[in-house]
Design a protein that fits this description.
single chain, alpha/beta, Rossmann fold, six-stranded parallel β-sheet, 39% helix
């Protein structure tokens, strides 16, 4: 099978975008690598020609100048070099550059699939609501007539897409982790030195990622707890947004609390990231909106139990396989969980981490997902 991917990858640092803390680049490239072992795969990008040692996929850079596109038509050159693909998978929505790609792909009778990656959730649609409404009404709805269907990361996202586009085919193809490093959680909950380290890993977007709720709830926990044995660790990129620095906000909050109860670290990349999180005890993902967070899959893959909201679209897996718990944004929900955690059976917590490790390696390995979903000339839904 020949598959072309359109994804705006960014060369962030010397490790390149795959080794960033998270984001769509990581999951797209993980899928591309897995597919390239059995299929002819290429990536079209507007930023860079993606270079990687021993890569088995092709990479193309395309210049989206209007005159250049419709007179010189670089997309035709890509098709000439790569060959006509069975599918073109577009990994974004809010980008005008996808429209000429859709039209030209349709002209060449190429099946187009779009992966929204969580952008159709209720919370995501509320952000910049007017701009998105205009974008949908004036552009997106017209061009989506020409696509074959969508790729959802899980049943939750399939439901979100189906509410907007009932007539389109929707395939479920989840994110997965790459089994690159033989790293597992070394210390069980039984051997704790009277401390539990709960960490958040990812982009410091306080609203979408629910970090505002997490900080308030952790402050409540510290006021109520007599033991105060839980430490909160933030690992990620410190970005300036809306006029303030996320790191400064956490540092200011830290001054109000006992020393060393909140720690900001990272970002870490590649193997170093897995080594760092293997020293911690539990991942918390308090997001308001997600597609299917890679950080959860990575934490499960090394044997860490998970706390997550239903908006991560992975809570059903956590509960069914006894590898994590659901949290919500109601007042005292997270703080009460932390208070109970202090007196929990540590052996049970360790077992939850072990359950997650076993399930993730059996069902959420990206190579297994790719082998199951992408056949010789067809795509099929993944069964969790």
């Amino acid at each position: 099978m020949k598959i072309l991917h359109f994804a705006n990858l960014k060369k962030k640092n010397k490790y390149q975008s795959l080794l960033r803390v998270g984001g769509p680049e990581s999951s797209v490239l993980s899928l591309v690598r897995a597919q390239s072992k059995k299929h002819h795969i290429g990536i079209i990008n507007t930023n860079i020609i993606y270079e990687e040692k021993n890569k088995k996929f092709e990479s193309f850079k395309i210049n989206f100048n209007f005159l250049n596109f419709f007179y010189k038509n670089p997309f035709v050159k890509i098709l000439k070099d790569f060959g006509k693909p069975n599918y073109l998978i577009i990994h974004e929505i809010y980008n005008f550059n996808i429209f000429p790609i859709i039209i030209l792909s349709r002209f060449y009778n190429i099946k187009i699939l779009i992966s929204p990656r969580g952008t159709f959730s209720k919370i995501a649609l509320r952000i910049n609501k007017l701009k998105k409404l205009i974008f949908f009404k004036m552009f997106l709805n017209f061009f989506l007539h020409f696509i074959h269907g969508f790729i959802a990361l899980n049943p939750g996202e399939k439901s979100q897409i189906n509410k907007l586009y009932k007539s389109k085919k929707i395939y479920i193809i989840p994110n997965g982790f790459e089994k690159k490093y033989n790293i597992k959680k070394k210390n069980s909950f039984i051997s704790f030195n009277n401390e539990i380290k709960i960490f958040y890993l990812g982009r410091f977007d306080f609203y979408i990622k629910g970090l505002d709720i997490l900080l308030k709830e952790f402050e409540t926990y510290l006021k109520k707890s007599k033991k105060r044995i839980i430490k909160l660790v933030f690992i990620g990129e410190h970005r300036k947004k809306f006029g303030f620095s996320s790191k400064e906000l956490i540092d200011n909050f830290n001054k109000l609390n006992p020393k060393n109860k909140i720690l900001v670290k990272g970002p870490f990349y590649g193997k170093k990231k897995f080594i760092e999180i293997s020293k911690l005890d539990m991942l918390i993902q308090p997001s308001r909106s997600e597609g299917m967070p890679n950080t959860v899959l990575e934490a499960m893959s090394i044997g860490l139990p998970i706390l997550a909201t239903k908006y991560t679209n992975i809570v059903d897996i956590l509960k069914k396989n006894r590898c994590g718990w659901e949290i919500n944004h109601k007042k005292n929900n997270i703080s009460n969980f932390l208070l109970n955690l202090e007196n929990s059976n540590k052996k049970k917590l360790y077992q939850y981490g072990l359950n997650g490790l076993r399930y993730s390696h059996k069902k959420l390995n990206i190579q297994k997902i790719s082998n199951y979903c992408f056949l010789q000339s067809k795509i099929r839904n993944y069964k969790f």
